[in-house]
Amino acid sequence: MKMHSADFSADARAALADRQLQRALGNVQRGFVEKRRKARDKLPEFDALRDSAKAIKDHTLAHLDLYLETYETRVKESGGHVHWAADEAEARDIVLDICRNAGAQTVTKGKSMISEEIALNPFLETNGLTVVETDLGEYIIQLRGEHPSHIIAPAVHVNRDEVEADFRRHHDFLPASRNLEAPESLLSEARGVLREKFLAADVGITGANFLIAETGSSIIVTNEGNGDLTQLLPRVHIVLASLEKVVPTLEDASQILRLLARSASGQEFSVYTTLSTGPRRPEDPDGPAEYHVVLLDNGRSKMLGTEFQDMLRCIRCGACLNHCPVYHAIGGHAYGSVYPGPMGAVLSPALAGVDKAGALPNASTFCGRCEEVCPMRIPLPKMMRQWREREFAQNMSPPTQRYGIRLWAFFARRPALYRLMAGAAASLLRMMGRNGRIASLPLGGGWTATRDFPAPQGRTFQEMWRARGKKVA
Amino acid sequence: MPASDKESPRRVALFVTCLVDLMRPVVGFAAVKLLGDAGCIVEVPGDQTCCGQPAWNSGDRADAQAIARKTIALLEKYDHVVVPSGSCAGMIARHYPEMFSNDLHWRGRAERLAAKTHELTSFLTDVLGVGTVEAAFDGAVTYHDSCAGLRELGIREQPRRLLAGVDGLSLTELADSEACCGFGGTFCVKYPDISTAIVDRKIGAVAASGADTLLAGDLGCLMNMAGRLSREGHTVKVRHVAEVLAGMAGGPAIGEGAGKEGKQ
Fold it and tell me: Is residue A237 classed as helix, strand or coil in its secondary structure?
């Protein structure tokens, strides 16, 4: 998986200075958080469901080989094909082969983060195919030539005016005088344009929220119904999924589905929950003639049995992004990864390498709200800390930070020396203070550029406590 | 009031934390007073330094473990360990056992210490059953729930229950009170711009609350919020909750000059 940014700090600064983005991010903070809270409060068994969902995924991951092979067998029995892709290059080649064998010119796509992970669109386009995103958010992003900034709301950083401008620029076959003021008019224009594309498509590609081992089905959830048209109308349907999406039974998927939309958007259920099993059978009214599943590993099987295995429980609801103070401040693009926010801070180093994505697990205050809202009870801060441990052990964290911590720890292990240093530091800082605060601290510019540093009271507690003890004695 | 007068007094170790030791000793003395008033015999083990959180959160497991071993050996002989900080108490109560997951001997010792380590307001209310404290504070206060205390230790109602008994004090809740203040230990200097953006939302909520005093239970968060409030020209005073509960809020607030002392 490609990281889009080499300098997280600089990109974060740019995001903080982007006023339009900052306005858009206000909606994440207010909208998603409140909606999830209401949905959770209305379901008394919400936390019990979380326990159950975690148990289902833990069990599945412990027997992943068994369930994947069962799933493959069932897909084949229903007349479909399963392709195993070890990495993203293999996955792209498999998809291109299927498209070429189908003589395809146009490909429609439902929302798929895996397709972002393997950078499928530019690859197919380079190879002469026309690719059309059909999720409204993804469609907007595609017109703008951007990447999604959120895993369930890809265009959350874009405002209405920008969408109107994009539509006017790209839909130049429509009358320039048309009125697009109401958000609904934008929606219906997108619907009209996309309808043509659906009908013209030769191949439809969707992601999968779940793969069901007992039936060989895949499940997608959408709010726009675009997924249904993507997978029903073209002659060929490709399901693009990573291998941890499998669960044993439909009952298992049903339980986790009760958490998914509530955690994501605060809906009780997504508007469409669509199952697909194999190609069209003779008695079916519609459906594709060919049904392919591309199962992507891309580093996931290496996470099994490690301290990062719990991350494979993730169902991509986005709740951790929606509740993250860092995501609220900078949005998704600054992370420079397909997967932003807390889940991305854990997953991106696993997929792209901690040498490339090392800034991400450090970009957290460890406030713990992500873990608190995670429907799958993934210990995200703990795993970010584990990435930091790997960085520290491999001397990848910045030298000033590493030596600073080691020097401080040297004193913290030696109480007598520590007391001496603390006493000296307290008096020194006290002297530097004006009106009880220090406006500029040498080596502490990270703090004092935007904040005063409160001056200490003067003597350490230990000094005062000891002095008092002597007095009393 | 102690839960039972018949019990022998509890021998409590105060782990004062490195920030309180260095920056704001009055919080330590406030804790000593609150614990003493509740019938505890308070001791301050002299060889305490820091809980090791900066090393642990920076990925320096070896140093974090070395500091933790010293801290465990120092504190394990007491009936209880009380800490005027949610994040340092959480470090001992939650992270020490995790740190030694592969070391049976130290894990056992860490778990035993974890079980008797408490954040100050939680110890007073949950363990000692203190209902009210003898204190007066004339002011409109608001309260910031520090993240580690709130989410690792479930501290939310405890400080509010104690504050409700302080004469003259009125409490207004912050909007979005569960949001982080942006401190995050080393985060605030590693990513100062993001940290500042986060604390700006917090001080916006503080200003909107109309309170003249901001309280919390963790000195790191308090210094972060106080530093930004004063830099932005706000006059809200910032204090550790223990200062108010112990009736020791007469001196300068955090980041406030001694010159103002006489005015209070």
Answer: strand
Q: Dihedral of the CA atoms B170, B175, B178, B181 (nearest 10)?
A: -90
The pairing of strands A236-242 and A290-296 is: parallel
pLDDT by residue (tens digit) across A429-454? 999 999 999 999 988 889 999 999 99
Partner A contacted by B149 (CB < 8 A)? no
B121-150 pLDDT per residue, tens: 999 999 999 999 999 999 999 999 999 999
Of the candidates A337, A301, A308, the one whose C-alpha atom is nearest the C-alpha of residue A84 is: A301
Q: Work out the angle at residue A113's Cα, subtended by the Cα atoms of residues A111 and A114, and round it to the nearest 5 degrees.
A: 115
Written as one string, the DSSP assignment of A180-206 is: --SHHHHHHHHHHHHHHHHHH-SEEEE
If you search the block for the tokens 């008092």, which residue do you land on?
A468
Q: Is A473 strand, coil or helix?
A: coil
CA distances from A303 to A367, A415, B149 (A): 25, 40, 31
Task: Provide the strand spans (E) within B8-102.
Answer: 11-14, 41-43, 80-83
Domain that holds residue A462: 416-472
- Residues constituting chain B: 264
**CB pair distance less than 8 Å for B147 and A413:** no
Write out chain A residues lying below 8 Å of B256, CB-based. Answer: 435-437
Does any CB of chain A come closer than 8 Å to the CB of residue B35?
Answer: no
| SS3 state of residue A143 | helix
What is the predicted pLDDT for the residue at A1? 86
Predicted TM-score (pTM) of the model is: 0.95
Q: Is the four-CA dihedral A359, A361, A367, A370 of positive or negative sign?
A: positive
Q: Which two tokens stand for residue B37?
A: 């008033």
Say if A403 is an interface residue toward chain B (CB within 8 Å).
Answer: no
In chain A, how many domains are there? Answer: 2
On chain B, the residues whose CB falls within 8 A of the CB of A434 are 257
Among A240, A263, A298, the domain boundary falls at A298
Whether residue A30 lies inside any domain: the answer is no
- Write the ipTM: 0.94
Nearest to A276 by CA among A232, A243, A241: A232
pLDDT score of B7: 62
What is residue B141's three-state secondary structure? strand
CATH of B132-251, one of 3.40.50.2300, 3.20.20.150, 3.30.110.10, 3.40.50.11810: 3.40.50.11810
The string of pLDDT tens digits covering residues B224-260 is 999 999 999 999 999 999 999 999 999 999 999 875 4
